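Table S2 (text version). Query chain:
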Amino acid sequence: QCRTEVCYCALRVIMAAAARSGSSIAEGTPKSQPLSYKIHSFSSHSAAFHPRNILLDQPSDQSSRWSSGSNNPPQFIVLELEDVAVVQEIMFGKFEKQHVCNLKEFEVYGGLKTTNMIKLLSSGLKNDNKAETFSVLNKVSGVTMPVRYIKVVPLVAWGSRSAHFNFSIWHVALRGIADTTYVKQRVSEFQDLQAKEAVRLCLKYFRQRNYTDSFENLQKRTKIALEAPVLTELYDTLVKEGNFKKAEETLVTSLQGGVVHESIAKVKYTPEWTLLKSTREDGTLQDRSEKPGMRGGHQMCIDADAGHIYLFGGWEGSKDLADFWRYDITKNQWKMLSAE
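Corresponding structure-token output:
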């Protein structure tokens, strides 16, 4: 009974979203414009450095800024737009000269509610007197995202290395699209996206709990796929059938067809250092004279086809080096190609 009610609720969410969206509006994208805002909330402030100071751009006035009351996280300012809009840019004004409290690292979040915000930007300011403008994320899964609230979260101040300085923001200006008709349509589309994500969460839960009937009924009524077909195939192959060989074949096919290239491109590589214990032809370890010594500032490149890594020169602490080495990855063996 409980599972049926969850399915029914999910269906109602989708149907309400569909009713809201109506027909698409054939229109061009309105021009970007300055967006008015007020201070909604903040973490803290020190002395007279209230968050409302950032509404004015007064670079020659040292007191015209927000300064946090502490550098202990989380510190933040939440801006409330005059109306819901599609924010495209955020500009940070600065003091007329360098300042230790300028934001070396910060993040910006946005959303229609303060309780559900998405990261729009992760960046930092130069420690100078020139205002900086940043483009912010305004699409999620290809759908334009309108916001009502913008949250700026300082992470590191320029003076944090030498002392514990509080954070300062001198001025913030926003630009974006506030056209009522355009924004209303974007809100409808974004709520549709959220509704579909709610259904996907239900589908995911039903599958994890093995509620097959509920899963199939909800998917059939909403016509919403939980995931890409290849992921469903992998799930069926591994979880339901336990067929590892078939799963490997599916992965290989996906790689060859470029299905997962976009996902792979988003993965950050993590370096992993391993001490190389290179060996001679007979399997014994090479001694110091048979491999490069400690150095810095050297040059390296790799011939991936041949499986060779080349190393040239560097500085060993007292003199420049000009030796040239080759490392055979397959043989795990160094060879000097030139001493000078």
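Notes on Table S2: Residues 180-208 form the longest helix (29 residues). The chain is about 25% helix and 30% strand.
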